[in-house]
Design a protein that fits this description.
This is Insulinase family protein. The chain contains 31 helices and 23 strands. By secondary structure, the chain is an alpha+beta fold. It is globular and about 80 Å long.
């Protein structure tokens, strides 16, 4: 069953009437018959067979005579949505040698053409139904399964029936012709090419080492060029007929409809499905086996030193055990919880050592059941230098201590408090768990052959376990985690000759010195003992914001707050603090310190609390401390809960009132920045990440990624000199949205942010700062050191900025989505040149300049001109010819459904209203948001295209392999720009 459920972000609020739009009526099909194959009362549902875990009664299960199993559930989060998952128990491990990549290729082919969909009609069909391809409509192929995913918005019985019909045609009757295979293989090869490079080769070599002798060693879902190019309609059909059978299929449907309706549609469209011939037994995936002569006390087997120029150093070793199916019982889950507890204890010690200036940047222990192939305990870390042996000795020493001595009860209690807060929060938030997440939980449970459990059950099992856990028991559990028949290791390094296989084996076989100083000393820290921020502030003004029942509170010291107390998301409160001038306030010669600030400002601590003390004082609490820099403001963000809200506000306010300047986080950030820089040139995407922002800002030095020389010149003292005044100056806005008591929230703000000293003003030149855009000209060329068949291209046009232009920015979002559909068709479907080209619009509202429209694609070097030609053709065609009504409907319907869904969440309103204390115009413009994003005309789109694309060539950048020249001729014909 699920042990550590992930948090759910969607809520169940109600849109204001002013934002609602009338929905088109859809003709209703006849109601399908009552489901016939539900699990009857007293019977054990198929997912709970062999388990004593209490059944989650909100699920309804069924099994058809053909062997297909299904699970359905009523869920209204988000409202009017149904999430459908179709899982096929076949992935890359089910392929023969000659079929490598076929499971993933089939995933593509099912979307290309099927019984109820003509060629390439899947994407536009789902768009017309309101689903966005890539997020609402998607699929995944793993070594053990293939899953088709649909999150269908604005659902009714007729739309459900049509969608289930289409899905049944895709799964039961895809058109696997030679023509379709030949059309789809280039797209898959483009995907493979874009994933390739040094990182991928290092990952493949690591996989071959860790899973030596098992199918998993060389069964990547993407396949090989040889097997994909050799695919035919007949060969792919043979794989399909072998594995796409009802007995290998599980369908999950969760949503805002009667579960009997969901079940009936499954039975209607899949009930008469029959597989071809006799069923094929699942293949044997193999077991990890120690080589002959391995030392049973330290059974080191295969090892590999992997040289990958340009990559960061990383070391992984794994203690491997055979995977076996289990009965998912309560006792078994108590054991999983103890496993998780043992890992948490070690990981906290490893992190503390890294923070204190250890020989590694990070280190982590993680147990995982991998692809039903092995039950393994993985140890991974990143050495700070070429002295990987010292880092390995440090990490092994921490683990050796955990294997030699039981943890203290204080350590155990600390981790148990963390677990309890997670499980208790899941119980609190049960009624707002998103349907898509619930559907995925069933799919994942089936994949690992386990059950699902209600949050209350998980908490009950945890409480039962915690009553019995002892230090001696945890010592035994830890030893089990690090026992197995074979240990394997792989070390990735950029330097040739740094680590041979023999040297790695010797290091792994070397005796381990127990790190007796690895344990974290117990400390008794309480918020009650911390000094006050200052004298509680006074409220200068308070009243409604004018939207819903959101409140604005202005304090006498200049701090302004926006609060919305509501109970729509039980147990969750979002807190965001906006302060200062953001990038506007940073000088060009401070770029390196700005980059380090993103990594180290929070870790530098507050008052008497360093990073370790901040972790300890938040033990068992739901608190956060995320920092970011935007064009117009710095931000702090956290997700907390009402009982922790006052302390969360204290921690944030203390960052301004009593900042701490620990040097270790800065030194660690410097090491991380240096290691990251060395890997940027390894592939085109890395070069884009390094250089694009700087170039698109017209070479503004604030946005230049600091190189190792610049990083080396920074110091902890310099870090403080830069960041201390940035924390002191500029306005502060605090937003608190969620499940809390408004009076208590205002009182907490009065004691914290209201108690801060008066803020300094932003300098006039900072407040009026603008951001540039480069003049179009010759294509800017950058080079990477990766594969010779990889390149990337960017084309960008300047747009607008500022709050007043928000209505136009929303219309521009429609236009860019139309552009994106055409670019996808041109570069992926027709040319096969790029797997996932994308275009997006950025319209900053905190500043008056810096907006842009950017199109990006990864492709072959020879296809760079084709990308530019296609983007030019699309832009010019949109500027001269209005898009069709159908083309707009394929964009506006998914946008409408997207807004309807996300606007049911607190974060939507927080993000829309942030900054409104500085510019109240945001509030009034919120009322037109839905219409601006979903209502337009072809003529309006043409006018926008003329404005932004008609008179400019667009700024261009290409990243090509070192040693090559940029092609100037179009070698792949650009697709037609029309609809």
């Amino acid at each position: 069953m699920a042990i550590l459920p992930r948090a759910v972000r969607r809520l169940a609020l109600v849109l204001p009437f002013a934002l609602l739009a009338p929905q088109l009526a859809v003709a209703q099909d006849p109601v399908p018959p009552t489901p016939q194959y539900l699990t009857e009362e007293g019977e054990t549902p198929w997912i709970y067979e062999g388990s004593d875990v209490p059944r989650d009664e909100e699920w309804t299960f069924g099994e058809l005579p053909n062997g297909l199993r299904y699970a359905v559930r009523k869920n209204g989060v988000p409202p009017d949505q149904v999430s459908i998952r179709v899982r096929i128990d076949a992935g890359s491990l089910h392929e023969e040698d000659s079929e490598q990549g076929y499971a993933h290729l089939l995933e593509h082919l099912l979307f290309r053409e099927s019984e109820y969909l003509g060629p390439a009609m899947a994407i536009p069909t789902w768009q017309r139904l309101g689903a966005t391809f890539g997020s609402d409509t998607n699929a995944e192929t793993s070594p053990t399964h293939t899953v088709y995913k649909l999150d269908l918005p604005n659902v009714d019985e007729a739309k459900l029936a049509e969608s289930m019909k289409i899905l049944s045609g895709m799964v039961r009757a895809p058109v696997l012709s030679d023509a379709n295979v030949q059309a789809e293989v280039p797209i898959v090869l483009a995907e493979k090419r874009e994933r390739g490079g040094p990182q991928q080769r290092a990952a493949e070599r690591t996989r071959e080492t860790l899973f030596a002798g098992q199918k998993l060693a060389n069964r990547l879902p993407i396949g090989t060029e040889a097997t994909l190019n050799g695919a035919t309609g007949a060969s792919v059909s043979a794989f399909y007929e072998r594995w796409y059978r009802p007995e290998n299929t599980v369908i999950v449907a969760v949503g805002d409809l009667d579960p009997m309706q969901l079940a009936a549609e499954v039975e209607k469209w899949f009930g008469d499905w029959q597989g071809e011939g006799a069923a094929t037994p699942a293949p044997d995936f193999g077991d990890p086996v120690a080589p002959p002569g391995a030392d049973p006390a330290n059974p080191v087997g295969e090892v590999a030193g992997i040289v990958a120029p340009g990559l960061q150093r990383s070391f992984t070793y794994a203690v491997m055990r055979p995977w076996r199916p289990v009965n998912d019982t309560i006792v078994y889950n108590e054991g999983l919880l103890r496993d998780s507890l043992a890992q948490a204890l070690i990981n906290r010690r490893l992190e503390a050592r890294a923070r204190a200036g250890g020989s590694y940047l990070y280190a982590q222990v993680a147990q995982d059941d991998v692809s039903r192939s092995t039950d393994a305990t993985f140890v991974s870390f990143a050495p700070l230098s070429e002295d990987w042996e010292a880092a390995l000795a440090d990490v092994r020493g921490v683990i050796a201590d955990a294997l030699a001595n039981p943890p203290t009860q204080e350590e155990i209690d600390r981790e148990l408090a963390e677990f309890e807060s997670i499980f208790a929060s899941s119980v609190e938030q049960r009624r707002v768990m998103a349907g898509a997440r619930l559907a995925d939980d069933i799919v994942n449970a089936v994949d690992i052959r386990e059950t699902v459990a209600a949050p209350e059950t998980v908490l009950t099992v945890f409480n039962s376990m915690r009553e019995k856990v002892t230090p001696e028991q945890m010592l035994e559990q830890t030893r089990k985690l690090f026992a197995g028949p074979v240990i394997r290791a792989a070390y990735v390094t950029p330097e040739t000759g740094e680590a041979s296989d023999a040297e790695i084996r010797t290091a792994m076989l070397a005796p381990v010195e127990v790190a007796s100083d690895a344990r974290i000393a117990a400390q008794d820290i309480s918020f009650e003992d911390l000094p006050p921020i200052g004298e509680p502030g006074t409220i200068a003004q308070q009243g409604p914001l004018g939207v819903l029942d959101i409140e604005r509170v202005d304090f006498a010291n200049g701090v302004k707050a926006i609060l919305w107390a509501n109970d729509a998301e039980p147990g969750r409160v979002a807190v965001k603090v906006r302060f200062g001038g953001g990038w506007r306030a940073i000088a060009e010669d401070e770029a390196a310190y700005a980059m380090l600030g993103r990594m180290a400002l929070v870790g530098s601590g507050v008052g008497e609390l360093g990073q370790e003390e901040l972790d300890r004082i938040s033990t068992g609490r739901r608190m956060g401390f995320d920092f970011d820099i935007t064009d117009g403001a710095f931000t702090l963000f956290a997700q907390t809960r009402k009982q922790d809200l006052a302390d969360q506000l204290y921690i944030f306010a203390a960052k301004f009132a009593m900042p701490r300047w620990d040097p270790n986080p800065v030194e660690r950030a410097k090491a991380a920045a240096r290691l990251a820089y060395e890997s940027y040139a390894a592939n085109p995407a890395g070069v884009i990440n390094r250089d694009l922002e700087y170039l698109l800002r017209d070479k503004d030095g604030r946005f230049e990624v600091a190189d190792p020389a610049a990083i080396a010149e920074t110091t902890p003292e310099g870090f403080r000199e830069v960041w201390e005044p940035l924390l002191k100056n500029g306005p502060i806005e605090v937003l608190v949205f969620g499940d809390f008591d408004k009076a208590e929230g205002i009182a907490a703000l009065t004691r914290t942010f209201g108690a801060l000293d008066q803020r300094g003003e932003l300098a006039a030149d900072v407040a009026s700062e603008s951001f540039g855009f480069p003049e179009p000209g010759e294509t800017v060329v950058r080079y990477h050191n990766g594969d010779a068949n990889q390149a990337a291209a960017v084309i960008a046009w300047p747009s607008g900025a500022g709050v007043d232009g928000l209505p136009e920015s929303r219309q521009l979002e429609i236009l860019t989505q139309v552009f994106n559909n055409r670019l996808m068709d041109a570069m992926r479907e027709r040319a096969g040149a790029s797997y996932a080209p994308v275009i997006n619009s950025q319209w900053p509202t905190d500043v008056a300049s810096g907006g842009r429209i950017t199109a990006f694609a990864q492709l072959r070097p020879e296809d760079v001109p084709a990308f530019f030609a296609s983007a030019d053709a699309i832009g010019q065609d949109l500027a001269t010819t209005p898009p069709s009504a159908d083309e707009l409907q394929r964009v506006t319907e998914p946008l409408l459904q997207y807004v309807n869904r996300v606007s049911t969440g607190n974060l939507f309103w927080l993000f829309q209203l942030e900054g409104s204390t500085q510019d109240p115009a945001r509030i009034g413009l919120l009322r037109s948001l839905l219409n601006d994003l979903t209502q337009t005309t072809p003529e309006r789109m043409q006018a926008l295209a003329q404005k932004y694309f008609g008179d400019t060539r667009g700024w261009r950048m290409a990243v090509i392999p070192e040693g090559q020249e940029l092609a100037t001729r179009v070698t792949t014909a650009p697709a037609e720009a029309g609809r």
